[in-house]
Amino acid sequence: MNDWLYIDCPCTSFPRSFARDYKETYCYPPPSTLYGFLLSLVGESDLRSHLGVKLAIGVVGEDSPISRVLRKNRSHKFGKKHLGTYPAAQFSKPNFQEVLTDLRVVLRLNSSSETGAKSGAVTLADRVAIALTSPGQISRFGGLSLGESWAMVNGVRRYRDDDGAVRWLCRDDRGLIALPVWIDREQTTRGTFRRFSLGDFTLESDERAWVKIVAPIETKPKKARKSKRRS
C-alpha cells in the first residue's frame, strides 16, 4: 500500500456534463478530474503528456454528503460584440449548485502502458513520487484543487491502514455510476464516459478496477449530402 495516494478534500463539486441552471454533481470523482489533478500536482500543463496511464479510484468511508448552495454564476459567450466586457448586472445570475463535503479519495497509478510521455521521459507515477518525497524538485503554480479551482485539498500523502477501509470503483457496463474518463477541452468539449460499480474487493485480483486514460481518435466530420431536387 506504499504506492496508494490519500487525498483529503473538505469541500468540492464535480458538475455533471449536462447540468445547466441547476449544477448537479457526480457523487464520486471522475477519472478525467483525477488525471487533471495529478498533472497539476506535478506541474504539467499538457493534457496529453501522460496518456495511457491507468488509475484505480477508491473512496474511504460512506458516500460524501451532498449539500446545496446558492452562488453567483456568470453566463456568457465570448464574442466580438462585447470584446471581453461583461457587466455583472447583465451576465451574472444566482444559481443553485450541489457540493460534496468530507471527501476522502484513495488513488493508485500504473504507468506501465503509458504512451503519452516522450521516449525516455519520466512517467507520471515517477513524477508523483518525486512530488511527494522531494517537492522542491517540482515546478508548479497555483493552488492544488480537486475539481473546480475553489475546491482546495487539505493535502496529499501516502495511504495508511488507519485511514479506513477503501471501496473501489470497478468498471461495469451495467453499473449505475457513469463518469467521464476524458474531456476534449481543445475542440469539441465532449466527453468519453464509462460506467462503474462501487464495492469492496481486492485491487490486485480484479483488473476491472483499473481505468485507462486515453483520448478518442479524432475523426473527420462527414460532409453533408446535397439534396437533389427534381424540377
Describe the 3D structure:
By secondary structure, the protein is mainly β. The protein has one domain: Alpha-Beta Plaits (2-Layer Sandwich), CATH 3.30.70.2660. A hairpin with a 7-residue loop joins strand 7 and strand 8. Helix 1 crosses helix 3. The longest helix is centred in the N-terminal third of the chain and has 12 residues. The chain is globular, with a radius of gyration of 20 Å. The relative contact order is 0.25. The model has no long low-confidence stretch (mean pLDDT about 85).
From the structure above, extract its key features.
globular; mainly beta; single chain; 11% helix; 3 helices; Alpha-Beta Plaits; nine-stranded antiparallel β-sheet; 231 residues
Supply the CATH class.
Answer: Alpha Beta
Overall radius of gyration: 20 Å
CATH architecture: 2-Layer Sandwich
**How many domains?**
1
Topology order in helix (H) and strand (E) letters: EHEEHEHEEEEE
Low-confidence stretches: none
Distance between the termini: 75 Å
The number of helices is 3
Short description:
This protein has helices at 31-42, 88-91, 124-133; strands at residues 5-12, 54-60, 66-74, 92-110, 155-158, 166-171, 177-183, 191-199, 210-212. The chain has 231 residues and is mainly beta. α1 (31-42) packs across α3.
